[in-house]
Design brief:
By secondary structure, the protein is an alpha+beta fold. The chain is built from six helices and seven strands, in the order H-E-H-E-E-H-E-E-H-E-E-H-H. The protein has a single domain, classed as Hypothetical upf0131 protein ytfp, CATH 3.10.490. Strand 4 (128-137) and strand 5 (140-149) form a beta hairpin.
Length: 218
């Protein structure tokens, strides 16, 4: 059963937290690429920071819709956008609905170069489940690598009331910077791509009004 979130001021701090070992990340990567043929191009789906900071070269980028999951601030972040003592929230793909994002096509010969770094970034705690899922684009359906939320992971958090969510985001920061910056940059990148996410827009505009967020185009 999902427990209630801890009281404000130490939200998520009492939950179990462990970084995956390099061996665990490598085993997960090997499993994800088990059916990949060396040299074959692959697609990667982005719905959060991968939209504005993919950190890999790609040969093609398309807008894409993933069905069966929706974008949500449903993952406690104790490293990238928070700390174990003051966790932030980052995006995951939770069950239900659909999500508009982007897909990137990586050249097959670049997969061994970029995928280990991608796993270090996305799979540091094993909170996501790497899956190959169909994504719909204007040029047809592609089978893409998608990182969906692992609801069995202790870092998963169900939807929070907006005031509590905003309070958590405003106070958290991690190795990649403030949580506020992360949420606002994601919203700005989606707007720039022509992707409308009403709930995220409402949250981001509240944060932008605080004067704590990066200006447009930063």
């Amino acid at each position: 059963m999902q427990s209630s979130p801890p009281a404000a001021g130490h939200a998520g701090a009492s939950l179990p937290f462990r970084l995956w070992t390099p061996e665990e990340r490598q085993a997960s990567l090997d499993e994800a690429l088990r059916h990949w043929q060396a040299g074959e191009d692959v697609w990667v789906y982005g719905y959060g920071s991968l939209v504005w900071r993919p950190d890999f070269d790609f040969v093609e980028r398309r807008l894409a819709t993933l069905r069966g999951h929706h974008r949500a601030l449903c993952l406690w972040s104790r490293v990238n956008r928070g700390t174990p003592e003051c966790p932030g929230l980052v995006f995951g793909l939770d069950r239900g609905g659909s999500c508009r994002g982007v897909v990137y096509r990586l050249a097959g010969d670049q997969v061994p170069t970029y995928f280990p770094a991608l796993w270090d970034r996305e799979m540091s705690t094993g909170a996501y489940l790497p899956r190959w899922l169909n994504c719909t684009t204007e040029s047809g359906t592609v089978r893409a690598l998608v990182f969906i939320m692992n609801r069995d992971n202790p870092a998963y958090i169900r939807a929070l009331p907006e005031p509590e969510l905003l309070a958590i985001v405003r106070r958290a920061a991690g190795r990649y910077g403030p949580c506020t910056e992360y949420v606002v940059q994601t919203a700005q990148a989606l707007r720039a791509a022509g992707i409308h996410d009403a709930r995220l827009d409402a949250i981001a505009r509240r944060l932008e009004l605080d004067g704590q967020a990066l200006p447009e185009g930063a």
